[in-house]
């Protein structure tokens, strides 16, 4: 694997449109990685609560309920 300095030199040699495309790709990969990590944490939580095999509709209902509780707390009417 290349060192960070080597990668920086290669990237700085790219045209600005290529650099932007690379930054966009990195952003997408980081977003996907974050979603995957969040998914794994949520699966672990469901497993800990013995709800891993709950029907998806039930999970969505609970997520909606949690969202409403947070909204009422953070944004009272």
Explain this structure.
This protein is mostly helical and 77 residues long. The chain has one domain. The protein is built from three helices and no strands. The chain is elongated. It starts with a helix and ends with a helix. The mean pLDDT is 93.
Helix content: over 70%
Radius of gyration based on Cα positions: 21 Å
Q: What's the helix count?
A: 3
Structural class: mainly alpha
Distance between the termini: 55 Å
Domain module tally: 1
Strand percentage lies at under 5%
Main sheet properties = none
Low-confidence segments: none
> What string gives the helices and strands in order?
HHH
Which of globular, elongated, flat, extended, rod-shaped describes the shape?
elongated
The pLDDT mean sits at 93
Total strands: the figure is 0
Helices, strands, pairings?
Elements: H1 4-12, H2 16-48, H3 56-74
């Amino acid at each position: 694997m290349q060192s960070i300095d080597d990668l920086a030199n290669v990237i700085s040699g790219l045209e600005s449109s290529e650099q932007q495309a690379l930054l966009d790709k990195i952003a997408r990969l980081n977003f996907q990685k974050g979603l995957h990590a969040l998914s794994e944490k949520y699966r672990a939580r469901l497993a800990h609560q013995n709800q891993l095999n709950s029907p998806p509709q039930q999970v969505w209902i609970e997520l909606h309920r949690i969202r409403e509780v947070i909204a009422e707390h953070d944004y009272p009417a």
